[in-house]
Amino acid sequence: MPSYGKINNSLNNQSYKISPKQKNIKFIPKDFKVPQKDLLIFFRQLAVIIQSGVPLAQGIELLSENTKNEKFACLQLQIASRLSAGEELSICLRKYPKVFSSMTVGLIQAGEAGGILDKVLDRIATLIEEQSKIKSQIQGALIYPVIILVLALTVSLALLIFIVPKFDEMFKSMNAELPGLTKFMLKLSGIVTSPQSLLISITFIVFIYYLFNRYYQSKSGRFKIDSLTLKIPLFGPLLLRSEVASMCDTLSTLLDSGIPLVEAIERCISASANERVKRCLSSAIQSVREGQELSVSINSYNVFPKLVTSMLKIGEETGKLSFMAENLATFYKRELENAVSSLTKAMEPMIIIVVAGIVGTIVVALYLPMFKMITVMG
After folding, report:
1. At 3, is the pLDDT very low, low, confident or very high (cuts 50, 70, 90)?
2. CB distance 235 to 138 below 8 Å
3. Whole domain around residue 376: which residue ranges?
4. Same domain assignment for residues 234 and 339
5. Does 86 share its domain with 144?
6. Maximum CA pair distance of the chain?
7. Burial status of residue 253 (CB atoms within 10 A of its CB: 0-12, 13-18, 19 or more)
8. Residues 211 and 288 in one domain
9. What pLDDT digit, counting tens, does each position of 319-372 carry?
10. CA torsion sign, 104 to 297 to 226 to 354?
């Protein structure tokens, strides 16, 4: 393996000094995290630096001078110092597991062994960019219902707290017989405006959140909840598409870099966020080790769409597994974009319907007694 820290003699004696300002920066390497955007820029620029013939340690020092994140800049100087002492880049990065994933380290290690580090670094940047894009698309799709819910609750609470009590006083002064819907709305307003009810509601919500969090942290609970999320109408298929796109993209990148299939699947497991998908891939690893094809192994767990298993099977039979995985990633990323766009457009009128329905129900409940009185007087 090449040693990128000892490319020339002048670099061997070079010491990367940390500025007085950076000396005051405190962070624990094992717990320190870096935003994906900063990592994307780091790997993209590092690939260009290597292609330009600049020694790796010196190049990382140059990158640290232009990094706005001071902690990350300090970390880069530490890496440059290790490189100048003769360590491999993959070994240096392995010391910061929260910053550089095992998949990233594995790719860099393969790049060092094959002498294609610049290409691997550029591919890592592309992979981070694609995964960030998928994540933002999913977040954008999921945040829309949350906005609808918050908007509906805000309007409802505003009416129940400020408007309904005024009508309640008016109805009491009239001694009129109220319809069932109006009585329900007045009672609901009384509950919402009661301090005791507010305290009970907050306590209940915190208690439910605590129980859910405890259950989700357990292996069985996480597996059951993650399995259910994949079955939620509209959003389940969306999440599954994102998992498939991410997995295929990662698998293609790893295989193209010369990493063995079993190790590549292991890296895909660490990159996945769904416990059901992780268990499927874990089961596939054991089957692949026993001589089965990957397509057969993942098909037995009934998680991935038939298209995925069929395309992977063709890739294995033709010896072009990485090529098929890349095509699948492209296909499902396009499908994800279309699904998010369609879902966003479909939910725009739903906002109007939901809010209008809530406001309309409250307004009708308040004006029903008046309509009744007008009818009687008429």
Report:
1. very low
2. no
3. 127-378
4. yes
5. no
6. 104
7. buried
8. yes
9. 999 999 999 999 999 999 888 888 877 777 877 788 888 888 888 888 888 777
10. positive
